[in-house]
Amino acid sequence: MFTWRSPRPGPLVVAHRGSSDSAPENTLAAFARAVADGADAFELDARLTSDGKVVVTHDRTLARTAGGRGRVADSTSASIRRLSAGAWFSEEFAAERVPFLEEALELAGGRVGVNIELKFDSRRQDPGPLVRRVRDIVRGFPHPGSILISSFHHGALALQRSVAPEIDTGILVYPPGVPATPGVRLALRIGAAWLIYSGGNIRKSFVSKAHDKDIRAMEYTVNGRMRLERALRFGVDAVITDEPAVVRRLLER
Questions:
Q1: Engineered SS bond to 18: which of 1, 31, 61, 225, CB 3.0-4.6 Å?
Q2: From CA 154, how far away is CA 244, in angstroms rounded?
């Protein structure tokens, strides 16, 4: 079974919203394809509906990937499930629906990891309802070691660690250019196991400083040979990519 803390000979390949280069992002089809493409884990975005369900979708509104109207937070799970989450990508995926978090975890089954990114409409939003609902779902999942919870909302991660210290967390570092030391200090204060940098703000020195404190480093979004080669030079522990099949082939050469 997969765990985020297991030592690996090379970086983990984490599929960004699933294999989002070849299937509609954040759908069960994209997650299944990620597994078939050889990803070690897949990343997804979690939002709370008006009736307290956790659905897997990136944007605060339903327009771009589901053709709906309004905000996810103002919509019921039943109304969201009536929408197609794949028709925008191609007619082949028109039957795809916005998944519940439980469905994505069931698909992973502990064979691959799942990076759950907690999404909020703003940093002023109370993170408690989503954090606690995700905690309850993950605690009902038989493979908690395969779960990593991340967010740009660092207050949400601090709360996550306080209500479920057994679940690993990863800090999404923002804005670009943020110094490494505060990121490491924040990770140590929260107890986060990972620092997750964008390609625009990662530096080799940042990765080294994280490793000095036994914190692992992840980079997003690593697509193509040149970005992967740089990630390898920097010594990152995981790469998030839209193209897990391509990255896997490059790593195996």
A1: 31
A2: 28
Is 117 exposed, middle or buried (CB count within 10 Å of its CB: 0-12, 13-18, 19+)?
buried
For residue 156, what are the CA distances in angstroms to 72, 201, 209? 19, 22, 24
Backbone angles phi, psi at 181, to 5 degrees: -60, -45
Quick one: tokens of 168?
């690993």
Q: What is the pLDDT of residues 18-33, one digit of tens each?
A: 999 999 999 999 999 9
Distance of CA 180 to the CA centre of its chain: 21
Residue in 16, 17, 38, 10 with CA at minimum distance from that of residue 112: 38
Q: Tell me what the mean pLDDT of segment 33-40 comes to.
A: 98
- The rounded radius of gyration (Å) of the Cα atoms in the chain is 17
The secondary structure element, H or E, covering residue 219 is strand 216-220
How large is the average pLDDT for residues 155-182? 85
In the block, which residue shows the tokens 């250019």? 177
